[in-house]
Amino acid sequence: MLRFVGYGMFGWSAEIAWTAAYALVAALVQRRAVDLRLTGRTYLWMFPIYGAGGFAFESAHAAVAAWPLLARGAVYTAGCFAIEYVSGLLLKRLTGRIPWDYSYARWHLHGLIRFDYVPVWFTFGLLLEQVERVLRRL
């Protein structure tokens, strides 16, 4: 249960930081007023998705721990895309909407995942290796 909560909190925190940083960069690039409050956001639905996804990550990490960094990152990226796609599809069927609808983006698949987020999920997966180490010590 502690690891589930830990992964859920890490995912929430990372998403809030990501959305705040994304809004800041977008404002700078588009030469709009910058909101220095750096407001980020997430969804309640994301906590159980990140929490359960953490356990899927642990299985993947155990299988690829000895692999080179680029290979591990590629596996984590594919896993993040799979979890994001399936959980988005389930949420759409359950609620009628996708909380993170990416339909507006150029490189999306059914509005559920964005292929231009490969570096984000790659990095997120490698960070999860460190999060897992900390959570297992607790």
What's a quick, concise take on this entry?
The protein is mainly α. The chain has helices at 2-29, 46-64, 69-95, 118-137, and strands at residues 108-109, 113-114. It has one domain.
Walk me through the structure.
The protein has 4 helices and 2 strands. The chain has 138 residues and is mainly α. The protein is globular, with a radius of gyration of 16 Å. Strand 1 and strand 2 form a beta hairpin. The chain has one domain. The model has no long low-confidence stretch (mean pLDDT 94). Strands 1-2 form a two-stranded antiparallel sheet.
Order of helices and strands: HHHEEH
Structural domain tally? 1
Question: What is the number of strand segments?
Answer: 2
Strand content: under 5%
Residue-averaged pLDDT, rounded? Answer: 94
Unreliable runs, pLDDT <50, ≥5 residues? Answer: none
Structural class: mainly alpha
- Global outline: globular
Give me the number of helical elements.
Answer: 4
Biggest β-sheet strands, sense, barrel: 2 strands, antiparallel
In helices, the fraction of residues equals 55-70%
Terminal Cα span: 12 Å
Tell me the strand order in the biggest sheet. Answer: 1-2
The whole-angstrom Rg is 16 Å
Provide keyphrases for this structure.
single chain, 138 residues, mainly alpha, two-stranded antiparallel sheet, 4 helices, 68% helix
Topology (SSEs and partners):
Layout: H1 2-29, H2 46-64, H3 69-95, E1 108-109, E2 113-114, H4 118-137
Antiparallel strand pairs: 1-2
